[in-house]
Design brief:
By secondary structure, the chain is α+β, with helices and mostly antiparallel strands. It is 36% helix and 19% strand. Strand 1 and strand 2 form a beta hairpin. The radius of gyration is 18 Å and the shape is flat.
Length: 193
């Protein structure tokens, strides 16, 4: 099959139950699709997809990973990042996964979104209306509790140029960020324990 034949199915909105919700800094809320569901969508629509990840790079306080996703011989890239020095819980584990796991998931989601998978999430007004149309009361609750957030989604529209300082398809360190080696990062992690 050709990619353009698969794009319609790849871009379809996910079932309402697949939309998860998280709090944003400042009290807002955001609906999102977990990376595992995006992976499942790829398995359903085009099971011969391939993915390659770069080695993690530490840039200042971030761990950065690149993901190359290939569908029907078309490769697109996503960049993911996470706080490199996340706090551990009292049990010694990370609350939502290690920095490398979080950056890897972020890179995968961004690469998948470059094919249109879940790209509609950037339009939170659409997500709220979509959930409402599917009988999911979270859409109405979201609209009532967070009217300002729904009216002004904080992210840029899919395909728009990144704002200054945002990580885009090519990662460049800013003057205040210094890249460190993986060994230095691991040493810092051990020192935190």
């Amino acid at each position: 099959m050709e990619l353009r034949e698969l794009l319609v199915d790849l871009k379809k909105p996910f079932p309402a139950a697949d939309h998860k919700e998280r709090a944003l800094p400042g009290g807002g809320r955001w609906f999102f699709i977990p990376w595992q569901r995006m992976r499942d969508r790829l398995d359903e629509v085009c099971p011969d997809w391939q993915v390659v990840y770069s080695d993690p790079v530490i840039a200042g306080e971030l761990v950065v990973i690149r993901c190359k996703l290939t569908i029907c011989n078309v490769t697109r890239e996503g960049v993911g990042n996470s706080d490199a020095f996340k706090e551990r819980t009292s049990s010694g584990n990370y609350k939502f996964g290690s920095p490398i796991e979080c950056a890897t998931a972020d890179a995968f989601k961004n690469a998948a979104e470059s094919f249109g998978i879940g790209a509609y999430i950037d339009d939170q007004d659409f997500v709220v209306r979509y959930l409402q149309s599917k009988g999911d009361g979270r859409g109405v609750q979201f609209a009532h509790m967070d009217k300002k957030q729904v009216s002004n989604p904080p992210s840029r529209p899919f395909g728009a140029a990144p704002k200054t300082g945002q990580i885009s398809g090519t990662y460049q360190t800013s003057p205040q960020r210094k890249e460190i080696t993986r060994e230095e990062w691991e040493a810092r992690q051990k020192a935190k324990v």
